């Protein structure tokens, strides 16, 4: 890292995606100073999430290149722009793909985390303040991703997308709290809310589903039933407290019926983390009449439609959905980090791989082959 021009511009190394699906290229990139309501962060550890891979592949998404991907990260604030009052240089922080402006009707509501100003926007390539990018190489601007762009030694982020955390928290672990982990964990703890001893079905045992299972374990659920089409997921899921497994491909009956039979009428709670609309319907129809609650987390395809008989609602099954585990990024995420510090939440088992920044493309290989839950990238190595 070299400081340029009155100690305000930085020359750093970033992993730039020049083209869809092509390996990232390590480039010297200029990082502009933070503008109004922005902070510049030295990224210490970042982890790779499926969403990075999806937008890098750009199949079905608006292609926006060159771009710096990355959204799950832990780092330290280097400098702050005008109007930033809640953060200062030296603060330990997590970047979050969706924000909390603190001023809109959602931020004022105790129930919502869907900020009007800073809600996730996958198509935006510049900063909200002026639409410009803070990254450039040889005078050519490079697009941001989710307002975070953490595959860079330094990044500039809106202060509403920055959660200030306990400085004692190890950033190589808590960086994964930024996205997938909190999404699954919060879907169970904040929305499904299983009571001690209750049964919970988790549809989809990827990182988000395993985090939902971790939420069920923390809640003291009695039975945790994992449902996945891929039997390779079952062995790993045992470490997450999943006690029984159902592979819909191994049954002639609809999976909701299999689960209803296994549980004498249905599970108390279910959390869907697949993105498949069939699994969403199954997750709803397998909860018990009278009190069962199903929570949808997976992101469906654009033309999907959820079809179920209205009697399912009349029989007092409840269907809910959750965005980012219903956590408010700035208000609630520091508390999730505290759960790890108190040893209530186990993060270590999610981190199956680690690579130095120079080998970031290997993380994409692990993720594409379905070999890892989370690969943490060490920006200082
Ligand atoms: N709501 C939110 O805020 C939010 C945030 C992040 C991710 N997500 C979504 O959560 C979902 C899970 O993310 P992930 O990273 O864990 O994905 P993943 O691909 O690692 O895991 C999904 C799992 O679901 C399984 N699966 C697919 N179809 C199935 C079916 N019909 N029945 C049973 N299992 C099935 C797959 O085999 C896989 O193991 C994705 O749709 C992702 O887009 C939502
Ligand atoms: Zn807001
Ligand atoms: Zn993510």
How would you summarize what this structure contains?
This protein has helices spanning 5-8, 50-57, 105-108, 171-174, 180-192, 207-219, 232-238, 255-262, 277-285, 311-314, 329-341, 360-368, and strands at residues 2-4, 9-16, 25-31, 38-47, 72-80, 92-95, 135-137, 140-142, 154-158, 162-164, 199-203, 223-227, 244-246, 269-272, 293-296, 318-321, 351-356, 374-378.
Account of the 3D structure:
- The protein has 12 helices and 18 strands.
- The protein is globular, with a radius of gyration of 21 Å.
- The strands form 3 sheets. Strands 4, 5, 6, 9, 10, 17 and 18 form a 7-stranded mixed β-sheet that branches. Strands 13-12-11-14-15-16 form a 6-stranded parallel β-sheet, sandwiched between helices.
- Helix 6 links the parallel strand 11 and strand 12.
- By secondary structure, the protein is of the alpha/beta class.
- The longest helix has 13 residues.
- The chain starts with a strand and ends with a strand.
- The model has no long low-confidence stretch (mean pLDDT about 95).
- The structure holds nicotinamide-adenine-dinucleotide and zinc ion (2 copies).
- The site of nicotinamide-adenine-dinucleotide has 28 residues, from helix 5, helix 6 and helix 9.
